[in-house]
Amino acid sequence: MNKRDIIICRCEDVTLQDIHNLMDKGYTSFEELKRLLRIGMGPCQGNTCGQLVQREISKYLKVKLEAVKIQKVRPLTTGVKLNSINEGARDES
Amino acid sequence: MKANYVIIGAGISGCSIAYNLAKKGVKDIVVLDKSYLTSGSTGRCGAGIRQQWGTKMNCLLAKGSIEFFEKAKDTLEYEGDIEFKQEGYLIISTTFEEDEQFEKNVELQQSLGIPARKISKEEAKEIVPHLNTQIIKGATFCPTDGHLNPFRMTDAYYRAAKRLGVKFYFNEEVKDIMVHENKIEKVISSNLEIYTNHVVNAAGGYAKEIGDMAGVDIPVYAENHQILVTEPIEKIQSPMVMSFSKNIYCQQVPHGSFIMGRSDPSVAHNHCIESSWQFLDEMAKTVCEVLPLVGKLRVVRQWGGSYTMSPDRQPIIGDTEALEGFYLACGFSGHGFMFAPMTGLLLSEIMLKEPSTIDISDLHISRFKNKQVFTYEKSVV
Asked: Chain A residues with CB inside 8 Å of B280's CB?
């Protein structure tokens, strides 16, 4: 299958070809790929693409899967409306 | 190995300095970073660029930098999109005192050729229809301020510098700087020993520690500033909306998401860059008051990054009296990203003893020794 037709990050619409293009230019860590392609920055926060990208980097660099770092996990766990946070914060104080 | 110049830090300042030196024909430039490109403050910043400052130096650095950004894609021959957008900064005042201060700021900005102006509540509402004008006295607006992608812009400098022969080493943490008889001898990092007589400290949050290694006391400290980002939506807001008294900046980036941040006056002076629920609470309260419509959006992520604060909230750019060959580009107090083109240009001129594009003797580290009263930048969130 053509790498252009394989979607790695559904949130930001990034293909396997996009990832390989950047790896060929020397960007071979998840954090660098994330900052240039927005992988892992969408609503799922890398829950879908994280392991796929990890496997691609591992194959590309010919290193063990566990040697490839995945993205830093940041809060929130799920999307929450600012209004809800605002109301919750005011109820508590 | 040997190098003519070693630059510590591959954030936008370090990359811009490397590019400017290389463009002037300097060979054997090495850039070291303890992590990856833009891993420090640059990659964590709010992606805003503005010229509306309260001090002359900050205004001039910002103005010159924006002129560079306008042509940066072509100048640096960058194939990607740096997401440069000039749709302004709308800075709102909420008290009479603040409104008076803004009057003076705009006068200064206009005298330096920055197209900022004082505007009424009604005009502000026209520019940002969802702005809560009940809480504001007035505003200032500068149409040529705006947004720029920090990763792509730094990448553009990085790639241009690499093409000019600059060598970058990532995951190389500087461990020590060896000095003999007031001259730098070598830089020791995780895996390298580099013999050099010239070192540039562009280490962002760690500038103080790098100074200590060289025996130069730099009066800066790092503090955590947090940001959050929402889900993307169709475009509803053009400029960055900012308030010093309400403690908020908030913009919709070209991608569609809203980025917003505020500072915590009680934050500790250290290298913490964690996220906190307290920030989330306070940020939500503030944005729901200032821009109520934005309250409907979901937060997808939050993060933190270091502001490296100098005593007068203006950067320290220049050489040092204490150590020959040791140069500083630090203490940007949260605004190193937007000043980077001028940082690189001006420091490279100083390093190569060329005439300066603008006089930046006021940004020399010696100002903290020689003067008791500083020109203090108040326009900081």
From this structure: 75-76, 85
